[in-house]
Design a protein that fits this description.
Elements (H helix, E strand, L loop, with lengths): L1 E4 L4 H11 L2 E3 L1 E5 L5 E5 L7 E5 L6 H17 L4 E6 L18 H12 L3 E5 L14 E4 L2 H10 L6 E4 L5 H11 L3 E3 L1 E4 L6 E4 L9 E9 L3 H12 L4 E9 L5 H7 L2 E7 L7 E3 L2 H9 L1
Parallel strand pairs: 1-2, 1-5, 5-6, 6-7, 7-8, 9-10, 9-13, 13-14, 14-15, 15-16
Antiparallel strand pairs: 3-4, 11-12
Helix pairs in contact: 1-8, 2-3, 4-5
Bound molecules: ribose-5-phosphate.
Length: 290
């Protein structure tokens, strides 16, 4: 096996290679003046299982095209099998048609990657795991939630309440509760499909005087966490933290989340971010070694 260091995840790729004690293939990447991407593998992949580590967070389209080009290059240079490790899988939230005339974006992306040469895909906390069943090649997801919960446990927050910002994320809160040993629950979230505006409500949630950690797969604009934090404060939570697998934190999201009363945001290194305090390398390394 050789690890191809995708430009979007060079540091994570190096850490994974270290965990697996395997060789790396550096990549030269550049953007032409007209905006097109260029990649060149600086190593041999002939007859190898080539693992490309390339997240597809912002800038999603450039990172996806680079991934496709690296897969093409690996296949052309004789790789036996190409696995794409995309810690954050872009376009996964558009996994169905919400409004008439839309694309099912993630299916189009999966077909594009297959044509480019990807044989297998590994990702982390994909928004809905069942979307991977519709990929034209084997694709699987692993969860970083236990790692995040362990981080809080080691920092003295054992028994903290794990909150999912919506019912769909309840499985995430349950996973965190398995490590933290406190309670867990969820809020009712509503998102306006046209404006993106988020609101949240709850009927029964006993968090008065408790330390609450909101666990989610992604923090993007921060709207979800801010709406949840507001309710938690109204319900008398003592302290509120936010944890996520993918800290995209677009624009001033981090500032607005902290201003909403959240003590700290803890994410993984699935995308480059200073909130990425927990590394995915051991988790991904273990999965690749299976
Ligand atoms: C949506 O259902 C996801 O699980 C996240 O809650 C959402 O993508 C977060 O986005 P934002 O930070 O923009 O509210």
């Amino acid at each position: 096996m050789k690890i191809i260091l995708g430009p979007a995840s060079k540091q994570l790729g190096e850490k994974i290679a270290k965990v697996l004690n395997t060789h790396i293939v550096p990549v030269v990447a550049k953007i032409f003046p007209d905006g097109e991407s260029y990649v060149r593998l600086e190593g041999d992949v002939l007859n190898e299982d080539a693992v490309i580590v390339q997240t597809t967070g912002p800038p999603q389209d450039t990172n996806l095209v680079q991934l496709a080009l690296m897969a093409d290059a690996a296949k052309r240079n004789g790789a036996r099998k190409v696995t794409a490790v995309t810690p954050y899988l872009a376009y996964a939230r558009q996994d169905k048609i919400f409004l008439h005339g839309e694309a099912v974006s993630i299916e189009a992306i999966a077909r594009m990657l297959q044509v480019a040469g990807v044989d297998h895909l590994l990702t982390v906390n994909v928004h809905q795991s069942k979307v991977l069943d519709r990929f034209p090649f084997p694709a699987r997801t692993v969860s970083a939630i236990s790692l995040l919960a362990e981080h809080f446990k080691h920092n003295g927050f054992e028994k903290a309440f794990a909150l999912a910002p919506d019912k769909g994320a309840m499985y995430i809160a349950e996973e965190a509760r398995g490590v933290l040993g406190g309670g867990c629950g969820y809020l009712e979230k509503h998102r306006d499909r046209y404006t993106g505006q988020v609101s949240a409500e709850t009927k029964t949630l006993d968090v008065k005087g408790k330390i609450v950690i909101i666990f989610d797969d992604i923090i993007s604009t921060g709207g979800t966490i801010i709406a949840a934090a507001k309710i938690l404060k109204e319900l008398g939570a003592e302290k509120v933290f936010a944890a996520c697998a993918h800290p995209l934190l677009i624009g001033d999201a981090e500032k607005r989340i902290l201003e909403a009363g959240v003590e700290e945001i803890v994410g993984t290194d699935s995308v480059p971010s200073h909130a990425g305090k927990v590394s995915l390398a051991p988790l991904i390394g273990k999965e690749l070694a299976r």
